[in-house]
Amino acid sequence: MRKSDKAEKKKILCIPLDPVHDFGLRMIKKKLDDAGHHTALLPPDLSIEEISEQISRMPYFDFILVSRTIGYGSAEILANFLDILDALKIREKTQIAVGGMGISKELAAEIGFDAGFDASTTPEQALAYIEGREYVEGPSFLGQERNGRTKRDLCQGFSYAVKDKLIDTLLEDIADQVLTWSKNKTTPGIERAKIREEMFSLTDENLAGQDRYRQLEKRYIALCDSSIQRAYMNSDFPPRIRKIPGTLASGLKEFVNRFRENASCRKPFGEKSAALLFAQIGSGSPIMDTAHIKVCEAMGIDGIITICPSSGARNEGLLKGLLNHEGDGTLLTVQNLVLIKQHLDKAVLWLVRAHRGLNGPEAVLYAGHLGADLSKLNFFYGSLGAGTDPARLIVDTIASLRYAASYNIAFDIPSNDELCGIPTYKSFAGLLVMAKISRKLQAKPILKPLFCYSPYIIFSGKMSDNFVDFNAAKIKALRSLINSPIWIGEPAGFMTHTEDRIQSAMTTALHIELACNLGVQAVTMASTDEAYSRGVINLNPRLDTMKGAEAVFRFMGKCRIEPTGAADILADELMKDIKSVLTRARDRKDLAQSIYEGTFGGKEDGVSPGRGGRGTLSEWI
Amino acid sequence: MERDDVFAHVLDGLDIETYFICRNEKEGRALAFALMTELGFQHGDVIMTEPVGGGVRVRMRAVIHAPNDRPGWLEKGQKEVDRGNEKKR
């Protein structure tokens, strides 16, 4: 039981035990006064003897709040002060607390104060202490997560109208050509997705269903690479892949429940900024991913992108089971995704990638069936920047788009081919083609230009002065061409990061602020481990950049970053060059051949079309 | 509290930053690895080295729970640690 009754208004004496500083105590005094308590504040720079003399002549106080900013010698001064209060018999009736920049809770306890507050203490916390109640920061995770907040539809309100008539005609022609070309074609990836679709439709409640499942799995395995087949048939997994024991998954459930009991969450970024912020998470373990996700959610992240390993794009077939992977991403298995989804906050958007390899249709099917909100598709990037054969990937992507449309999940079109050396205008021409094809299939695309320092940009000197103008030009150009949602990828500020965490957090935060200023719908944020590639990304580097974003949002408020006139000139150049790429592609009348021949990026840019899955197309007769 | 009990609370890794007075980056890196070994961390890396003035700024990382491990924080009944606001007088 505390010494004072919390129902009454309290009497509090505030003492700045410091030569100069009393600002913190004045803030607390105001908070207490506003709450109806009766406070008195002594001036700073009084000696302990002077303070004691004044206190001895004052009436009774429920609390004495002492502040101390200077750290050196604090312990002795404060101990001396307490001894005097003891001698005056004040401590018998009054609670004595100490706080300030020079104080830690441990020091306060060691000296013998009733309570101690450090530099992070807020006036609200001090008020809670005085009123004898527990301080709760922000809304709790308990009960309804994020207080019933709903997910934002990134595509809402966009018509996808192409504003330039000539470009619209070019895109219509290219899209019609490729849809006609792909009409009767199929691939092992599409066939596996069809099998998986039927497997999803079965229930194991009856024997007939179980038999059918086994038959389907047999057919599925026949369409997989040998390394995947061995895993299905003999549990002989590829290197660095291990089964996760079931006990760990149940332990995770208890961990998440304990975490929720203790966690408080900050306001989501989407409520503080114009754009939603996404984090990429793929440690290799769905358990570690979940732990990272829970903390990122508490920090206010709006969306999560599950990062899968590059090997998953190179092999025919996806593994099954709850699996760990010691490598570059978390394996795309139904069980891994179910585990991640199970613990995901209901208000947080979730993206499952399907963009670059031989398992696209099945990955989009997983995304749709398992409740993801978004996927990721771009055959230009997948074939020019990630090693998959263009013809194979076009056919797979068209099937993937149909799945995305049928599940009504949006998808982003990453333009990461720019990082391989492809000029921005070629990459953007690809974005627009992808968007047009998608709309013809009733899918919902989100353009994902990069804010990056790419090889093309370095060689062309387009960012020799600043990182603002050319990034602004990219958004201006896309906005002038199409009414579409835009999401800055991936992650924002790519290749501007170093292994220095301060620099890395700063460049991420500034790129996010620029993106918000330009009115985009979402941004993928890096961690401060972005430039570190010798190990997994840890949690604290994720928190670093979120703290950076918070700080820059607070700093900028409603102020804006203003690009120079160069941004308009660069945007005009981009639009002219995009038109010329699309004209060449349309006139070639064969999009796959256009990609093989380098229209969207070729040898002069340092890229070659991929070979993964080459020769696997088959045609319906 | 035992060392293992403390490490069970670490989510993934432990970063250590410092500035070494040394001749060059190579020496700074070697010192960083030596420090990690001295502190008893077998699995780790030097994340960043940056020569500044007459020394090198470094950040090291010890891996406490790799993604493939069974993390200690999944276990029930972790000891609660609180050194604050304990009245000792």
Question: Summarize this, please?
Answer:
The complex is a heterodimer of chains A (621) and B (89). Chain A has 621 residues and is α/β, with parallel strands linked by helices. In chain A, α6 (165-182) packs across α17.
Explain this structure to me?
- The complex is a heterodimer of chains A (621) and B (89).
- By secondary structure, chain A is an alpha/beta fold.
- Among the domains of chain A are: 11-130, Cobalamin-binding domain (Rossmann fold, 3-Layer(aba) Sandwich); 165-169 and 273-575, D-Lysine 5,6-aminomutase alpha subunit (TIM Barrel).
- In chain A, 46% of the residues lie in helices and 12% in strands.
- Chain A has 23 helices and 18 strands.
- Mean pLDDT of chain A is 91; it is low at 1-6 and 139-144.
- Chain B has a three-stranded antiparallel β-sheet, with helices on one face.
- Chain B has 89 residues and is α+β, with helices and mostly antiparallel strands.
- Chain B has a domain at 10-67: Defensin A-like.
- Chain B starts with a helix and ends in a 26-residue tail after the last strand.
- In chain B, 21% of the residues lie in helices and 30% in strands.
- Chains A and B meet through helix 4, helix 10 and helix 11 of A and strand 2 and strand 3 of B.
Please name the CATH architecture of the domain at 165-169 and 273-575 in chain A: Alpha-Beta Barrel
Major β-sheet annotation of chain B: 3 strands, antiparallel
**Multimer state:** heterodimer
Distance between the termini of chain A: 85 Å
Order of helices and strands of chain B: HEHEE
Would you spell out the secondary-structure blueprint of this structure?
The complex is a heterodimer of chains A (621) and B (89).
Chain A: E1 11-16, H1 23-34, E2 38-41, H2 48-56, E3 63-67, H3 74-87, E4 95-99, H4 105-111, E5 115-117, H5 123-130, H6 165-182, E6 185-186, H7 188-201, H8 207-222, H9 226-234, E7 241-243, H10 246-262, E8 276-281, H11 286-299, E9 303-306, H12 311-314, E10 323-325, H13 334-343, E11 349-353, H14 360-369, E12 374-376, H15 379-384, H16 390-407, E13 410-414, H17 424-440, E14 444-448, E15 450-452, H18 455-460, H19 469-481, E16 487-494, H20 501-517, E17 522-525, H21 539-556, H22 566-588, H23 591-596, E18 618-619
Parallel strand pairs in A: 1-2, 1-3, 3-4, 4-5, 8-9, 8-17, 9-11, 11-12, 12-13, 13-14, 15-16, 16-17
Antiparallel strand pairs in A: 6-18, 7-10
Helix pairs in contact in A: 1-5, 6-17, 6-22, 7-8, 7-14, 10-11, 11-13, 11-21, 14-16, 17-22, 19-22, 20-21
Chain B: H1 3-7, E1 13-21, H2 25-38, E2 44-52, E3 55-63
Antiparallel strand pairs in B: 1-3, 2-3
